[in-house]
Design goal:
2 domains; alpha+beta; Jelly Rolls; 9 helices
């Protein structure tokens, strides 16, 4: 897998620089996967045992409430996606992960990862920092829902390249907590 891991290492380097022994050990827990557009990466009721690094593509985490399909989160290139509420307690998740484009991912097998922690403290430190950053991001997302308008959250989402071409508007609307009609109004007002 060597060369295809370079992007993943660049992502890791933002948090912590691993030595070569740690990199070699970590690579054994990784595998590359291709998922087609609209396919589920993880279905409902699945117990998450994998962390995914997105080399290309977009993932969404979603659930159903009152019969509505609600997107909780989008994950883009050079980001990690996992169902943490399932991963840490080892419980089945009420949420699913779907790919919105044909996507190229690196899957990190978590039971194998955990087995490396005692032998390679650098790996444990790296993932502690990654999970801490993920927690902060989750809190920021919750605060954004509490303190920012849908328009402000939409403008923040637009900072990602080609977002409107890449994500169906219905998913964006539910992610923002508004109807598609309200999203159309916001888009018209911003033109």
């Amino acid at each position: 897998m060597g060369s295809s891991m370079e992007e993943l290492y660049r992502y890791f380097d933002q948090f912590y620089l691993l030595n070569q022994a740690s990199r070699d050990a970590l690579e054994k827990t990784c595998s590359e996967i291709l998922i087609l557009k609209n396919e589920l990466l993880q279905p409902f009721g699945h117990t998450c045992k994998t962390i995914y690094y997105i080399k290309s593509g977009i993932a969404r985490i979603f659930y159903y409430k009152d019969g509505r399909d609600i997107t909780e989160y989008f994950a883009f290139e050079n980001k990690i996606v996992a169902r943490v509420e399932s991963l840490f307690p080892g419980q089945p998740s009420k949420k699913a992960i779907q790919m919105l484009e044909d996507s190229h991912l690196i899957a990190i097998h978590v039971p194998g990862l955990y087995q490396l922690y005692d032998t390679f403290p650098q790996i444990e430190r790296l993932f502690r920092l990654i999970f801490e950053a993920g927690y902060v991001e989750t809190v920021n997302r919750m605060e954004s829902l509490q303190f920012h308008t849908a328009e402000e959250r939409y403008l923040d989402l637009l900072k990602k390249p080609n977002i409107i071409q890449r994500i169906p508007l219905k998913h964006i609307a539910y992610y923002l907590g508004i109807t598609q009609v309200s999203l159309s109004r916001i888009r018209s007002a911003l033109k």
